[in-house]
Amino acid sequence: MSHRIERTALFHKQFKKVQKDPRWRPIFEGIAPLENNTLSAWDYVLVCFFERRPIPEYFYPHELKISNKLKQQIKKRLGIHQNMTIKILELHFDGHNGDHLLVYHDTPAITTMIAIGTHHTIFDQL
Predict the structure, then answer these.
(1) Phi first, then psi: what are they for 105, rounded to 5°?
(2) Which end of the chain is more exposed for a tag (fewer CB within 10 A), N or C?
(3) Are strands 88-92 and 110-117 parallel, antiparallel or unpaired?
């Protein structure tokens, strides 16, 4: 069974916007500053998801501390049973202090992309 990547409606809406934003061009077209790499930050992260490789520390992947109410809303949006544990993760495409973010939920079978954007745009909509 291969790994699947799914997108929420919110992610899809936000993704269309960031693709058109010139400030995101380095994320989609530039080369991520990792050793022996020729991929953009976006492509590199997708390869990690598909091949089940750990996300390098450069991207600062970390768990988000969010309220239980917000966790319940996300579980509902993702169709996850209420009694299941959910760990919402975030990564920074442009390093630890960057403001180009991906919010996702990862399991061995599926990675769900929840949101993409800046801190301001994501957390105003979640």
Answers:
(1) -125, 130
(2) N
(3) unpaired
Q: How far apart are CA 75 and CA 36, in angstroms?
A: 37
Residue 101's SS3 state is: strand
pLDDT value, residue 123: 76
Name the pTM for this structure.
0.86
What pLDDT is attached to residue 42? 97
Q: For residue 71, give both structure tokens.
A: 């966790």
Taking the alpha carbons at both ends of the chain, their separation in whole angstroms is 31
Which region among 38-47, 85-94, 99-108 has the lowest average model confidence (pLDDT)? 85-94
**Rounded percentage of the chain residues whose pLDDT exceeds 70:** 94
Residue 52 in tokens: 């089940």
The domain defined by 4-125 folds into YaeB-like fold (3.30.2310)
CB-based contacts of 124, cutoff 8 Å, min separation 6? none
Return the amino acid letter for 41. Answer: A
